[in-house]
Amino acid sequence: MKNLILIGCLLLIFTSCEKKPRYTQNSEQIEIVKAAINDYDYQEWEKLMSHYADTAHIYYNTRSNVLSPKELAEFHKKNDVYFSTRAFEDENREYEMVEDNNGKTWVNFWGLWKGNLAANNKQIIIPVHITYQFIDNKIVTEYGYWNSSELQSELQKINTEKSATDSVQEPQAVEDIQEVIDIKDEDLE
After folding, report:
1. Do 82 and 118 meet the contact criterion of CB atoms below 8 Å apart?
2. Domain definitions of the chain by residue range
3. Contact (CB, 8 A) for 95 and 33
4. What is the pLDDT of residues 63-108, one digit of tens each?
5. Domain 18-158 has what CATH class?
6. Taking the alpha carbons of 10, 11, 17, 23 in that order, is the dihedral positive or negative?
7. Which of 181, 118, 143, 169 is nearest to 56 (CA)?
């Protein structure tokens, strides 16, 4: 009887001390993030939205303005009009999954985003960090952070150059100038 109690206590001790890994670079959730990044790169908006829970909250460079999965495609399409090409570099991607102290599952992504501006073909490279919270293999929260100051500066420069170009008037033909038209009309009378 003592042996049975001793074996039971030892089993209890060994099983209670078993710790699940809280950090990994291989998981089903990481594969979902890889698929989501790929869907973004190839502008597969329906596939991209399929990785999110319907009630997911998406925050890009803010904690106050929230996007829903339904708004995500429009957000990206609106930003894509400025670029002839854009995607994350394949060779500079890092992923990790962690379980926080509250038992929440998060996947972190770090990568270099590259885009060529449509107006002047200037290449913009932006380091990006995105963290995704998962519940039941669906993204429920996403926080994305990057510094877009170089991009904003280039877009302002393009708009300034465009405004300057637009303000230069085309030379008018002599026949189109109002004073010349008035003189011609007087000659006809």
Report:
1. yes
2. 18-158
3. yes
4. 999 999 999 999 999 999 999 999 999 998 999 999 999 999 999 9
5. alpha beta
6. positive
7. 143
